[in-house]
Amino acid sequence: MERHTIEPRPDWQRIVEAQGVVYPLTRFPDGSLRPYWDESAYYSFTLPEVEALEEVVEELHAMCLSAAAHIVAQDRFAELGITDRRLAGRITESWRRRAELPSIYGRFDLRYDGTGPAKMLEYNADTPTSLVEAASPQWFWMEERFPGADQWNSLHERLVDAWKRQATLLPPGPVHFVHSEGDELGEDLMTVAYLRETAQQAGLHTEALSVEQIGWDRLSGRFVDERLHFIRSCFKLYPWEWLTTDRFGPQVLDTLDNGGGTGSTCWIEPAWKMLLSNKALLAILWELHPGHPNLLPAYLDGPRELASAGGYVAKPLLGREGAGVTIHEPGLPPAVRGEACCYQELAPLPDFEGNRVVLGAWVVEHEAAGLGIRESSGPITDEYARFLPHVIL
User: Fold this and answer.
1) Window from 91-105, 120-134, 243-257 with minimum mean pLDDT
2) How far apart are CA 190 and CA 364, in angstroms?
3) Average pLDDT estimate for 102-120
4) Which of 10, 57, 61, 306 has the greatest number of CB atoms lying within 10 Å of its CB?
5) Closest by alpha carbon to 379, among 316, 340, 328, 310?
6) CB 95, CB 276: distance < 8 Å
7) How far, in Å, CA of 217 to CA of 229, rounded?
8) Residue 277: which residues within 8 A CB-CB, separation 6 or more?
């Protein structure tokens, strides 16, 4: 794994916008605009590196599924902050009927610098973004800048194939693709639009909608779109923890389709994905697989030995893009947190010429499918991170 600088293409912004990246620039707090899609540098990997990372990702995914089964079997929902017994029951039902429920994708965030084993930082298996830039623009960038090279990227083909295979699990009618109108950047919009495109290429009938436009028909007891058509299946880029606690959360649970029930709504991703996108999973994985080379020590009851050893990171059980994450150097008194956290061993992100890098490794269905790389200037990958392309040389 190496970082290389390169001159960006003269018309790069127009090119990537046409390929689906609707916000190629990021506005910083000082009002300045800086590239989010950053092709002033790229990363290169060897084929053996990528093959080894693929094996790691698929092993981690299998371990996460086993951990989910453990959470359900041992009724450990409270450790995930899931104290509503009705919700826990619906998640359990969703897990037990998972073979009947469509599930498309997820993204592992990994610490890796090319010199040691990749370490799992977290798994976003419910609402992962940065998919568009990983699937399309970086592939076309490679074809233009490095003809004949390769890339860890079979995302588009695998997504289309996944929709084709899982079409039989969907109830009749269109699949509604929704995101929130609160998405100011357009990141959720472009992710949902791209996934909708892959579903259409798979032959599915689709409709676009915002979460805020979803209605409730009291007479039928069904969710409906703005034309009062029943929403029988819905891909939502909207976290489950929001969906189940919003105003219509009780109706979501009332009509939750855990296997093709009449009068219900099939949500994609399914409710059991709540078990994988919760940071408590990190501690349960470490408990089940202590010392595993691709895991970092993690606990729920406090930092334990991490406070006096190499330091730790406190992560809220739920959150995205680094929100609420704090870093605690070794030897300092543990900070008092007002919310439930996972305490994970501090593993500073690799520093390439002042750039802190994290690998986003994609899973489609149950197979490793591609790589997206984000860089940040600080130690936490946040909303100001940059996306950089990669090649296999």
Assistant:
1) 243-257
2) 18
3) 97
4) 57
5) 328
6) no
7) 10
8) 123, 124, 125, 126, 127, 239, 240, 318
